[in-house]
Amino acid sequence: SNLSVGAAHGKIILIGEHAVVYNKPAIAIPFTEVGAKAIIQEGGNDESGCRLNCKYFCGPFENAPEPLSGITACVHETLSYLQVEKPNITIRIESSIPSGRGLGSSAAIAYAVVKGLFRYYGHQANEDEILRLAQVAEIFAHGNPSGIDVVAVGSEGPIRFQKGKGAVPLPIGKTLHLVIADTGRFGDTRTAVESIRTLYEQDRLTTQRSLDLIEDFTYHCEQAMAKGDVKLVGCCLNLAQEELSALGVSDEGIDRLVDVARDSGALGAKLTGGGRGGCILALAADEQDALQLSISLKEAGATETYISRIGMSQHH
Ligand code: PMV
């Protein structure tokens, strides 16, 4: 019978997270070591509706638990866009992206599902339509998402993203060796974004200053990446981490891994994504240093580490 697959990879925000919610630019890179797949198949549903088959749930859409409401809303929106009235399909979701770690899990699943549905119904995929529909799931997951995640999980290379302006591919002067280390704790992006909003309303001047500084560091980071000035990239990452700390989205576990990374020779280290749990990223001078950093971070308690060379990456 009829079968279609949609796929997306993970993403890493190099710099600019949170500020991007306030219309500042941010830099994201594809994280191809992990990914999500949506397999769309005909049948499996008596009600001529949709069936979902994933790690946490298997059954008709109507019975899907609350945390999956983003994905079901996204499917409904996509089917209505494609003018499908009686779908009678089963959507199987497979993902190797850990959820709640700032690595783009929810966005990649949404992107893969929309792409899979477009393929299944023979609709010519238009990137802007896919992004808009995948964003429906992100709004459920995050409340007020900037949109960077859905763009980054479908992007082939590093991008600068800005709300309302979309993504611009970024030139890279020299390979960046990144180590991603998982604190092992769930990072609630929605809460983190809301906490900065509260801060913004309580103390606009100080908050705005931090957001403006992150914008500056992001700008300088982009220039340094283009020139291949890896040390300067590292500096920008460290400076951004200072501001993320000031904004209250870092925490003890993140700070500890960031310190270990810097003490072990990282050129820069910071949280990545929403923060308050989730992952840190560390910039290494070369492949060898990246391996060493990865070992040090594991010893310091990171539950998982990954090495990523801009687009290409390896699992450790
Ligand atoms: O989904 P996460 O945890 O990688 O965070 C996305 C980046 C934020 O800037 C914190 C939120 C957003 O919507 O851009």
UniProtKB/TrEMBL annotation:
Q: Family, per the entry?
A: Belongs to the GHMP kinase family. Mevalonate kinase subfamily.
**Stored Pfam families:** GHMP_kinases_C (PF08544), GHMP_kinases_N (PF00288)
Organism from which the protein derives: Sporosarcina contaminans
Q: Which domain of life is it from?
A: Bacteria
Keyword ATP-binding among record annotations = yes
Q: What is the lineage of its organism?
A: Bacteria, Bacillati, Bacillota, Bacilli, Bacillales
Q: Which GO terms describe its molecular function?
A: mevalonate kinase activity
Q: Which SUPFAM superfamilies match?
A: GHMP Kinase, C-terminal domain, Ribosomal protein S5 domain 2-like
NCBIfam families on file: mevalon_kin
The EC number on file is 2.7.1.36
Q: What is this protein called?
A: mevalonate kinase
